[in-house]
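re: ur question from earlier - yeah i can do the single chain one, its not a big deal. heres the input i used so u can compare w yours
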Amino acid sequence: MAGRPGRTGGPGGAGGPGRPRNPDVFSARTHLAVHRVLPVALGLVYGFWAAANRRDGGPITGWNVLFGFVSALAFMVLMMGVQAVAPRLKRELHAVVWGAFAGIAFGFLYSQTGASVLRSAGNSLMVAGAVTATLFYHYYTHEDAAGRRVS
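and the output i got, formated as tokens:
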């Protein structure tokens, strides 16, 4: 495997000297399409989930559908904003921004179930902390100090 071109790091490789690189299976066009479609798809799921939590098994009303679409739109806009801003930040802030986004998104969904504000805030802080810690570890092990990917 070490003899195959593009599989090990070195002067031109991103994996560092003697370190295997992860192959990029998808083209740049596919990555761009996913980067644009993912917020829309996740936003629609989020909006449906928020509307379902709010109606609590009752009938679907026009206001409930409107609430779902507004929630979806807000989620999409915020996710696209985080996608645009977070990669430019240092790895610590990068992880904190995604953690805050995940915690706020979870907290809003949880608050729609009728739970207390303290319970919603506490659970969303736990989610935000877990996401931040996980992403910090990921960025710390996959980037150098300047924020460039190493694998």
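The chain has four helices and no strands. not sure if urs matches, ping me
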